[in-house]
Specification:
single chain; alpha/beta; nine-stranded mixed β-sheet; globular
Length: 331
């Protein structure tokens, strides 16, 4: 069943459908030929929404993929399981496996950002389903992260520990009035990339009953729920799936150093840093990220984004003031 949603209103090339997977109902933004046997599935992060992939779905569709961006459990109009344990990492992996099975494709490219990338790393490590390629945006490999985490990163990750407190984070957020869209835009390096419709969708998504609690339960189950420890105890076999990592260097939550040494854990690894781009990398820099993803999928050289400083001639007024200041100093 296809329905109109805010995402499809933002880009008419994108439709929204409901899919059943792993015993739940998922709201999925779709683009491209849905009879294609090639799937590109995009996983959003916290506290976002499938709309975060609005700029990538049409590009993936042009490459011949059935392009999907699901709202994860607890987000958008997808199912909201009530129990905290429902958000264990094993259940999240099963959700993606169920969606891939429902797509009935011969090839799958998995793209993911933030919390979606946490799931994607474990999905590739555990080989839950075959992947032809993996694209990760601004979340480190769990093995590399464990080796590089330090005091600086722990300070940036304070909110993860705060989220472990029962009920208080949700209560405080509701007291202040959820303004998730504005918070994302404020921490972006290119705030002009977020339309009012997109900002409203983020805020409305978090304000719906039960959504904020569900979002935070992802963190609770990974930390105090033992999800990260269970995965660590299983070990981290080397990923052989060709992997591209796109990393906005101005990430407020994660240090660039967390990416160092990732090639130890992935045999076919391509790293691309995006200077002066924030954590919300595929939204802040869609042109650059799309070019990287497209080249990677087509197995062409993946372009780099460089920032180069430039010098501008001062105005006559500034030049005159400078000369006067120099003259006073000499006197």
């Amino acid at each position: 069943m296809s329905v109109m949603s805010t995402t499809s209103a933002i880009d008419h090339a994108i439709s929204t459908n409901y899919m059943s997977a792993n015993g739940l109902r998922f709201e999925v933004d779709m683009c491209g030929d849905q009879s294609s046997k090639k799937l590109a599935i995009c996983l959003h992060g916290f506290p976002e929404h499938s709309v975060s992939w609005r700029n990538q779905l049409p590009m993936l569709a042009e490459l011949g993929y059935k392009a999907w961006a699901p709202n994860m459990r607890g987000y958008g109009n997808s199912s909201i399981p009530p129990d905290k344990k429902d958000y264990a990492i094993e259940n999240l992996l099963a959700d993606i496996a169920g969606l891939i099975d429902a797509a009935e494709c011969d090839e799958t490219v998995l793209l993911a950002h933030d919390w979606g990338a946490v799931i994607a790393w474990y999905f590739a490590i555990r080989k839950v389903r075959p992947l032809s390629k993996l694209v990760i945006c601004n979340v480190p490999h769990p093995g590399a992260a464990a080796e590089k985490v330090g005091w600086s990163q722990l300070k940036k990750s304070w909110y993860i520990f705060f989220f472990q407190i029962p009920r208080l984070p949700e209560w405080l957020a509701n007291q202040r009035g959820p303004a998730v869209g504005q918070a994302i835009q404020a921490s972006s390096s290119r705030p002009e990339m977020y339309s009012n419709d997109v900002l409203a969708l983020y805020t409305e998504n978090a304000a719906r009953p039960g959504r904020l609690k569900a979002m935070i339960n992802y963190y609770r189950q990974l930390v105090l729920g033992g999800g990260a420890k269970r995965q660590r105890d299983l070990g981290f076999p080397i990923i052989k799936t060709p992997t591209l990592m796109c990393w906005g260097e101005d990430d407020f939550a994660l240090n660039k150093e967390m990416t160092f040494g990732t090639d130890k854990w992935v045999t076919d690894f391509t790293m691309r840093y995006l200077p002066r781009i924030s954590h919300w990398v595929q939204q802040d820099a869609p042109v650059e990220v799309n070019a990287m993803i497209k080249a990677f999928i087509l197995e062409e050289p993946v372009p780099e984004m460089r920032w180069e400083p430039t010098l501008a001639n001062p105005s006559r007024e500034c030049d005159t003031k400078f000369k006067k200041d120099v003259t006073r100093t000499q006197q």
